Amino acid sequence: MTTGRAQLRQPFLFVGNHPCLDFINTQMIVRGNPTDLLGGYENLVDWLLQAHMVDKTHAVAVMTQWGHEDQEQLFEQGVMFRRTLRDMVARIVARKSIAGSAIASINHILSRCPGYPQLVYKKGGYTRQFQSQAAQKDGLLAPLAEAASDLLCSGKWSLVKKCGNPACILYFYDTTKNHTRNWCSMQLCGNRKKVAAHYQRKRNNPTLCRPGPSAGVRLS
Ligand SMILES: [Zn+2]
Fold this sequence. Notes:
By secondary structure, the protein is of the alpha+beta class. The protein folds into 2 domains: about 20-115 and about 140-175, Orthogonal Bundle (Jann2411-like fold), CATH 1.10.3300; about 185-220, no CATH class. It contains 8 helices and 6 strands, in the order αββααααββααββα. It has helices spanning about 20-25, 40-50, 55-65, 70-95, 100-110, 135-140, 140-155, 185-205; strands at about 25-30, 35, 115-120, 125-130, 160, 170-175. The strands form 3 sheets. Strands 1-2 form a two-stranded antiparallel ribbon. α2 runs antiparallel to α3, α4 (about 70-95) crosses α5 and α5 packs across α7. The radius of gyration is 20 Å and the shape is globular. Zinc ion (ZN) binds next to α8.
């Protein structure tokens, strides 16, 4: 996949309803061009920070105290793990069995990150949160491996969906009441399809539709 230019501070999308899917969604299509929001380790650390998977102290330590080689290694591992997760999720959506290599990757990261679950009170209830005891360098991707294992063990696979726009590569976990969500977001793909359907109806039967706006909705 070719990539667009990544900025130092990215406006990441969090529309996946699951951290594992949000991480995969750092690859997207923007105006028809495959774009990777992770252009370097700075973007990866920034994403982990925005996803609340690393605290600010650790993020600052990676950016200011780690050597360049360690930073690049973290980035390579992160991007490789994202590729593994994208393939895993594509298989879930296609109702195919999960590749053994994906399970091995998740287990590898988990095995290097000893820790323990803790109960945390959040949004009116208790939730389990993984506390890593590993050294910082081994522990940074652990929350992502935990999220992936949570999706495989506790998630309902039929609710993992790809956006209904064939030109879009974003995934989401459908938490709507009747599980009828089709789009990554109304703003990005839903409205686009609605406008297209509107003009299709208008073409088929002009008397049914009143005059509307002449411009279509742009994919931002
Ligand atoms: Zn979409």
